[in-house]
């Protein structure tokens, strides 16, 4: 699943990335999958559940990986203004709003 999402991200970013960016993009895809899994399975998850979550929330993983790529160099910055150009950034939590957590009975 990681390889398929990585390829989609590379296609989406187009000329902005090269083969040398593959290791970094893979890190971003894996980070997005971990974030999805942590929200889907707050009590922990198995490899099978990880794969299931990556498939079910593939678009969320894709969006998060692209978001992480775009935020390189401005991590933690909420807004920016320079030479009359203002930038604001989406809250990362908004990416994951469609994930439905699984609950366990204690």
Polypeptide structure, described:
The protein has 106 residues and is mainly α. The chain has one domain. 51% of the residues lie in helices and 8% in strands. A two-stranded antiparallel ribbon has the order 1-2. Helix 1 crosses helix 2, helix 2 crosses helix 3 and helix 2 packs across helix 4.
Strand content: 5-15%
Low-confidence segments: none
Number of strand elements: 2
Shape: flat
**Radius of gyration based on Cα positions:** 15 Å
The strands making up the biggest β-sheet line up spatially as 1-2
- The protein's oligomeric status is single chain
Give the averaged pLDDT, no decimals.
Answer: 90
Number of domains: 1
Measured distance between first and last alpha carbons? 32 Å
Number of helices: 4
Largest sheet: 2 strands, antiparallel
Order of helices and strands: HHHHEE
Class from secondary-structure proportions: mainly alpha
Percent helix, as a range, is 40-55%
Topology readout:
Layout: H1 2-13, H2 22-40, H3 47-56, H4 58-70, E1 79-82, E2 85-88
Helix pairs in contact: 1-2, 1-4, 2-3, 2-4
